[in-house]
């Protein structure tokens, strides 16, 4: 299922010259074969891997987790505990890799930064009036600048789904460009909220729109709606980043978020990454899991492989 536009001969720089050229490009993308996409995702999900490969996959998945807390009741103590867990997920086993990042609200960035100081763990912050994105652009940019000033290494923004669904693609594009500029050196993850985009065609368009605007990552969801990451929508986004790199030479990451809770689920996603985008994306610089409960199951399965038995329910912390 190629995602290259029919007008691929046009320089991509010209695509965003006006609202009409951008619309023409996005609507010129091939329609998604939903049946074929879901069948391919389901087929890849049935692949089995051997024990040694499973151990490698579990450690890789741990290293790809953005350990997340995005609740109104978040406290500095909770964020410090989460940071400590990100740095050393299993205090009883120093061979366990650290997670990729901790993800928090902007007002908790400084606390998270202190908690992971001296480690490889990044601090990501949701911004732009997360999760709804219903705010003026000036407010969204202030949100981003506050997070960056506090030390955020990564910014997770939400697109204006209302504007996108109304076909106002240039507004969405301009907002992403502005947020990218406000993010400075921080890497930018652009969240689609795929459960609200309704169709696979819209997910494909959002993927290309975000990459054209300078996204470093494209991300499925906020985790705050009923439908979040699925194998099919992640497969579709992986096809998009693969084809975008083939056309531009620029590599963009993918982050499925929400609803991925077990090691079995995570490994299915890693198989999809390998078979769709390739080994270049099997690294936490280019693929992440947005999760809060996934890490615990990964640790439990890791311990099972090492000892042959499951530990009790108090083996992992309850986040």
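Q: What amino acid sequence fits the structure above?
A:
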């Amino acid at each position: 299922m190629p995602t290259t536009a029919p007008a691929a001969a046009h320089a991509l720089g010209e695509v965003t010259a006006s609202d009409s050229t951008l619309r023409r490009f996005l609507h010129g993308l091939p329609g998604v074969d939903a049946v074929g996409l879901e069948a391919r995702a389901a087929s890849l999900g049935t692949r089995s891997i051997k024990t040694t490969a499973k151990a490698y996959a579990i450690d890789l998945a741990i290293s790809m987790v953005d350990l997340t807390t995005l609740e109104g009741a978040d406290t500095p103590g909770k964020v410090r505990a989460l940071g400590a867990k990100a740095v050393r997920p299993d205090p009883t086993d120093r061979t366990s890799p650290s997670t990729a990042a901790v993800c928090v609200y902007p007002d908790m960035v400084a606390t998270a930064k202190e908690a992971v100081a001296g480690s490889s763990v990044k601090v990501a912050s949701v911004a732009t009036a997360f999760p709804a994105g219903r705010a003026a652009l000036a407010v969204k940019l202030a949100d981003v600048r506050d997070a960056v000033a506090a030390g955020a290494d990564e910014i997770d923004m939400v697109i204006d789904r209302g504007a996108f669904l109304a076909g106002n693609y240039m507004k969405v594009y301009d907002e992403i460009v502005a947020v990218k500029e406000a993010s400075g050196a921080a890497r930018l993850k652009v969240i689609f909220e795929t459960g609200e985009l309704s169709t696979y065609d819209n997910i494909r368009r959002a993927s290309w729109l975000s990459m054209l605007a300078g996204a470093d990552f494209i991300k499925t969801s906020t985790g705050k709606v009923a439908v979040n990451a699925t194998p099919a929508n992640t497969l579709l986004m992986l096809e998009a980043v693969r084809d975008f790199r083939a056309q531009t030479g620029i590599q963009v990451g993918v982050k499925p978020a929400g609803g991925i809770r077990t090691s079995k689920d995570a490994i299915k996603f890693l198989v999809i990454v390998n078979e769709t985008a390739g080994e270049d994306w099997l690294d936490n610089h280019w693929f992440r899991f947005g999760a809060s409960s996934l890490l615990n199951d990964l640790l439990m399965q890791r311990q099972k492989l090492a000892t042959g038995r499951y530990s009790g329910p108090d083996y992992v912390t309850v986040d």
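Q: And what stands out in the fold?
A: Residues 231-248 form the longest helix (18 residues).
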